[in-house]
Amino acid sequence: MTNSVADIGEASCILAIGTNTTQAHPVLALNVKRAAAKGAKLIVANPKEIVLCEHADIFLQHKPGTDVALLMGMMKVIVDENLQNDSFINERTENFEEFKESLKKFTLDYVEEITGVPGENAAEAARMYAAAGTASILYAMGITQHTHGTDNVLAIANLAMLTGNIGKPGTGVNPLRGQNNVQGACDMGGLPNVYPGYQRVDNPDAKAKFEKAWGVKLDDKIGLTHTVVFDKALEGEIKALYMVGENPVLSEADAGHTRKAMEKMDFIVVQDIFLTESAKFADVVLPGASFAEKDGTVTNTERRVQRTYKAIEPVGDAKPDWWITSQLAKRMGGKGFDYNSPEDIFEELSSLTPSYGGISYERIKEQGLQWPCPDSGHPGTPILHSEKFPSASGKGKFVPLEYRESDELPDDEYPLILTTDRSLFHYHTSTMTRKVEGLNRLNSEELLNINPADAEKYGISDGDMVQAVSRRGEVNVKAKVTDICPPGVVSMTFHFAESPTNELTNAAIDPVAKIPETKVCAIKVQKVG
After folding, report:
1. 217 and 116, same structural domain?
2. Alpha carbon 1 to chain centroid distance?
3. Are residues 350 and 426 in the same domain?
4. Separation of alpha carbons 314 and 335, rounded Å
5. Distance between CA 379 and CA 368 in Å, rounded?
6. Is the domain of 98 the same as that of 192?
């Protein structure tokens, strides 16, 4: 997030697009609801009529995968009606004229045809956002998990810059992370193209710095994303996998493809706190410790680095993840893994990562700090880009965009769009939450949400067992007839191994971010029996 969670309450307008905030981020959603109750305008853009719509001033129910068209149409209205922030554009940005030219085709009629949103509704939302003075954008996986997810994010950045809603309280481009400590994992270098702190592996200076610190020679080739790893395994190029706290058999798009890849590998090690669906493919399972059994840090969605404290000793043979990984490295001949505590690791991290340079266990023992925090006297950074952007010129660059269709659209054989969602009561692949009796009482099975018009068309009644079929697989699931989905769109979560939704989803990826398009795939639905 460019801003802080508490800062959402300072916004005069909030645009929540591609996020089912009350289900996936319920605590943060309280800030949104409080802001709306105090008078902030709330615009919700989502293919489903989610709970947050109850608090919205405008609901834009666009077709899955049409975010770029909707946002570009809104920006065309802002420019045509001279509602943009000229001073911010002139002082803080570049490439505006080229971007402005790219808006021409996004007339309200064109936008309505693509998105299904009435043109005047899109225009009203554009005026509301532009006139607010302070406007915050929230987004989540509904924006990123597309073959054009990068374009979606760029469109959001364009909108924020166009109206000057960046770098000050109550504004910002604020992605809501999909899992606990995703931000921290990325910060630590859990990506194939960077060292900790987003220092690129193909940058000679960064490479030299880490080689000196670690006493080894490093490869400057960018590695593989997890989606590509399974492709390479099927091709025989990757033969072993070490997997920590991940359950791709349920979470990966086109999960059947993932399963085949794991079956083909010669050797798999899984390190986790439960025997997950993926761990059943492992040759060796290493018992990790849960959050309550180990010390450490996490970094949340607002870039806040926080301490976690061990409440109990690890149960049975479980060990903290850092200890297991260090022991493996040392026993394989690795040097530099003689850590005695997670604090030792964090001190090394701070010494090599400029944005974490001023953060220490002592400074965050009671309250966290938001990076960048470059030195021990720095108070942390609640708001990014307040004076300049992290580019060579210090300016934000407008990016012209074109609308691109999703990889797979409905046809005569597969006439419905499936989009995935999350439940308030379960977390990701339910590795932990399905173990909780109370949560299972609240949400015990997968449901396929289907519009009444589609249910009638296919002879489906509420509670019927149906078979959902895509080009990749099939899943049996109970139907829930509801108008939260528009005609032509159905939705499922991916929390239940008994109805593994990702058997259906499309693994086509965004060419830049390599994220699979789990939010749009074509399916057919038929009543079982």
Report:
1. no
2. 12
3. no
4. 27
5. 10
6. no
Q: Which of 185, 68, 191, 202 is nearest to 122 (CA)?
A: 68
Q: Specify the 3-state DSSP secondary structure of 189.
A: coil
Residue 393 within any structural domain of the chain = no
Q: What is the DSSP-derived secondary structure letter of residue 253?
A: S
Please, which pLDDT band fits residue 430 given cuts at 50, 70 and 90? Answer: confident
CB-based contacts of 96: which residues, under 8 Å, 6+ apart?
A: 89, 398
- Same domain? For 269 and 322 the reply is yes
Peptide bond into 354 cis (omega under 30): no
Residues 260 and 357 in one domain: yes
Maximum Cα–Cα distance across the chain:
68
Pair 148, 205 in one domain:
no
Per-residue pLDDT of 240-274, as tens digits, reads: 999 999 999 999 999 999 999 999 999 999 999 99
Range of the structural domain that residue 34 is part of: 6-176
pLDDT of residue 394: 96
What does the pLDDT read at residue 179? Answer: 82
Flag whether 143 is in a domain: yes
Of residues 133, 131, 202, the one with CA closest to residue 170: 133
> Where does residue 205 rank: exposed (0-12), middle (13-18), buried (19+ CB within 10 A)?
exposed
Residue entry with tokens 């959001």: 156
Pick from 161, 156, 164, 169: nearest CA to 382 = 169
Query: From the centroid of its chain, how far is CA 179?
Result: 8
What torsion, rounded to 10 degrees, do the Cα atoms 442, 447, 452, 457 define? -160
| Amino acid 444: pLDDT | 92
- For residue 386, give the amino acid letter: S
Residue 95 falls inside a structural domain: yes
Token pair listed for 260: 């085949």
* Residue the block writes with tokens 């220490």: 360
Q: Please give the Cα distance from 65 to 149 (Å, whole number).
A: 9
Query: Which two three-digit tokens encode residue 211?
Result: 């080689």
* Both structure tokens of 351: 């010494």
Q: How does residue 180 score in pLDDT terms, banded at 50, 70 and 90?
A: confident
Tokens (6 digits) for 169: 């309280």
DSSP 3-60: S-TGGGGG-SEEEEES--HHHH-HHHHHHHHHHHHTT-EEEEE-SS--GGGGG-SEEE
Q: What integer pLDDT is reported at residue 226 of this predicted model?
A: 86
Residue 389 falls within a domain, yes or no? no
Q: What is the mean pLDDT of residues 190-194?
A: 94
Q: Report the CATH number that the domain containing residue 187 is assigned in CATH.
A: 3.40.50.740
Specify whether the backbone of 133 is left (phi greater than 0), alpha (psi in -120 to 50) or beta: left
110 and 244, same structural domain? no
Final residue before a domain boundary, out of 176, 197, 215? 176
Last residue of a domain, one of 134, 158, 176: 176
Residues 205 and 302 in one domain: yes
Task: Supply the pTM of this predicted model.
Answer: 0.94
